[in-house]
Amino acid sequence: MKHLQFFFNEQHARKNIDKHIRDNQESHLKLACEKILSLKAQLEKQEKQLKSFMVCQSPGVFFWKIEPFQEILEAKDPNRLVSGSFYIKLPGYRLQICLKPDPKSCTQRNLSVYLRILKGEYDAILPWPFRKTVKVSFIDQLYDAEDREDITISLSPANDKYCQKPIGKTDYHSYPFQTLLPLEKFQSRRYVVDDVLFLRVDISE
């Protein structure tokens, strides 16, 4: 008799659970969606923090793999290319490289190369203005490394005031370091291979 009573009690409990699920299916689904959205927001925040705290593997050297480079150039009005932000060392300055190809309509197309100084975690203890030597190299991907001829340019500030510590609402100063590079240079040698361009940034005292 006890076993029979237990059976009926278990069946009753299962029916109550099934009824609860049916009656509250919409609210459960809503809670699940809210949880997923919350987790997604947390992951996006963590990914942003990781990108913001990218540190160069070698002090003062940053590498950037750009693809699909040729496809970007073929656009009628190419978008600006922006690297992830990086620190040249810790504690150090938080920086970012930007490239902007001229539109296809230009007679002589150039590639504008910029260095941004962004707000960083260590700004309060760093010397200002930023007065580092910045060199940007577009790497020749020739098989024999000894025969490579990288395109190397130096970036110098247009105005010393833009090298001061970023403050206020803006996250960065407006391109204090910039220069122009003719795009036709990339048509020679092996700077672009399989639609990939490698860029190296060297920053020294």
Keywords:
single chain; 3 helices; alpha+beta; 5-stranded antiparallel β-sheet; 205 residues; 6-stranded mixed β-sheet; extended
Structural overview:
Mean pLDDT is 78; it is low at 49-53. By secondary structure, the chain is α+β, with helices and mostly antiparallel strands. The chain is extended, with a radius of gyration of 27 Å. It contains 3 helices and 11 strands, in the order ααββαβββββββββ. 27% of the residues lie in helices and 28% in strands. It has helices spanning 2-23, 25-52, 69-73, and strands at residues 54-55, 61-66, 81-82, 86-87, 94-101, 110-118, 133-138, 151-155, 177-182, 192-193, 196-204. Strands 1, 3, 4, 5, 6 and 9 form a 6-stranded mixed beta sheet that branches. Strands 2, 7, 8, 10 and 11 form a 5-stranded antiparallel beta sheet that branches. β10 and β11 form a beta hairpin.
The total of beta strands comes to 11
Report the β-strand fraction as a percent range: 25-35%
- Average pLDDT score: 78
Largest sheet: 6 strands, mixed
**H/E element order:** HHEEHEEEEEEEEE
C-alpha end-to-end distance: 89 Å
Low-confidence stretches: 49-53
Silhouette: extended
Number of distinct helices:
3
The residue fraction in helices comes out at 25-40%
Would you tell me the structural class of the helices and strands?
Answer: alpha+beta
Helix/strand layout:
Blueprint: H1 2-23, H2 25-52, E1 54-55, E2 61-66, H3 69-73, E3 81-82, E4 86-87, E5 94-101, E6 110-118, E7 133-138, E8 151-155, E9 177-182, E10 192-193, E11 196-204
Parallel strand pairs: 1-4
Antiparallel strand pairs: 2-11, 3-5, 4-5, 5-6, 6-9, 7-8, 7-11, 10-11
